[in-house]
Amino acid sequence: MNTFTHLPQEWDHWLDRNLAKGCLVQDIVKAMVESRFDADFAARTVAERVELRALQTQAALPAQAAPRQPYQYGLPRFAHAGNVISTFDRDVHITFRMQRPVLAVLDDLLTHEECDRIVGLARDRLQRSATLDPLSGQHQVKDHRTSMGVFLPAAGDAFLDGIERRIAEVMNWPRANGEPLHVLHYDVGAEYRPHHDFFDPAKPGFGPTLARGGQRVSTLITYLNEVEGAGETIFPALHLSVVPKKGSAVYFEYFNESGQLDWDTLHGGAPVTQGEKWVVTKWMREGVFT
Ligand code: PD2
Ligand code: ZN
């Protein structure tokens, strides 16, 4: 199928009108792709226009933060009642839960053998972790994330396939919407400073990733070893920290049905003070991750 890589004038006006109305970048890109625009072209065009509009607004107005609408909680994806989640092959125990934001700490998500096996698959393939630059959309190595990491696609691996299936059942969200499992390793001193796992739609560099299944909606961080010192997952806005325990996990959600993002889900990996820390993260998207 031929796709368009040029923006006719009527679409140019349509793009400005929709951004002015406050439509989400990913919805605009999706509508363009459905009208047969090339996906990369659409993501780039929208991202460039968002950046241009931001520059024009900055030039026209004295520095002023746009007021954020209060986050409205919708139906939780994590809709497990009681204290046990019975997945197809394992019972996972809920040891802590909160409603706002939806957050849970889970015990026994992975066996110790499964944790060791995941570490074994990742160990020789680690690379310095990078983050997506919000303006350029390029992957960049920065001081605020000093771990090493690797994605582990499950394709053709029966072991990872089972883990993926269990995780999708726990997160109560389609497996196809998940990014591949991502293993992180922190040495002493390594950290992941507080950040949001979602992509700020106002930042042009995030357009291309938002076109790959939409916004992230939830995160599951599973601890793969016992950390000798610190390395907690911290939630500064909630005054909460989760202490790593081999095989246990922390789950949280940050996106409602109206497209609002919960900024209180700010979180980070505190510096490891002794030993090392291994985790595997699953990020879920709104739609199928491509
Ligand atoms: O390793 C962690 O504790 C951590 C903290 C914050 C991991 C992530 N974010 C992540 O993988 O997004
Ligand atoms: Zn994170």
From TrEMBL:
<keyword id="KW-0408">Iron</keyword>
<keyword id="KW-0223">Dioxygenase</keyword>
<dbReference type="InterPro" id="IPR044862">
    <property type="entry name" value="Pro_4_hyd_alph_FE2OG_OXY"/>
</dbReference>
<keyword id="KW-0560">Oxidoreductase</keyword>
<keyword id="KW-0479">Metal-binding</keyword>
<keyword id="KW-0847">Vitamin C</keyword>
<dbReference type="GO" id="GO:0005506">
    <property type="term" value="F:iron ion binding"/>
</dbReference>
<dbReference type="GO" id="GO:0004656">
    <property type="term" value="F:procollagen-proline 4-dioxygenase activity"/>
</dbReference>
<dbReference type="GO" id="GO:0031418">
    <property type="term" value="F:L-ascorbic acid binding"/>
</dbReference>
<dbReference type="InterPro" id="IPR005123">
    <property type="entry name" value="Oxoglu/Fe-dep_dioxygenase_dom"/>
</dbReference>
<protein>
    <submittedName>
        <fullName>Prolyl 4-hydroxylase</fullName>
        <ecNumber>1.14.11.2</ecNumber>
    </submittedName>
</protein>
<feature type="domain" description="Fe2OG dioxygenase">
    <location>
        <begin position="177"/>
        <end position="286"/>
    </location>
</feature>
<dbReference type="InterPro" id="IPR045054">
    <property type="entry name" value="P4HA-like"/>
</dbReference>
<dbReference type="InterPro" id="IPR006620">
    <property type="entry name" value="Pro_4_hyd_alph"/>
</dbReference>
<dbReference type="Pfam" id="PF13640">
    <property type="entry name" value="2OG-FeII_Oxy_3"/>
</dbReference>
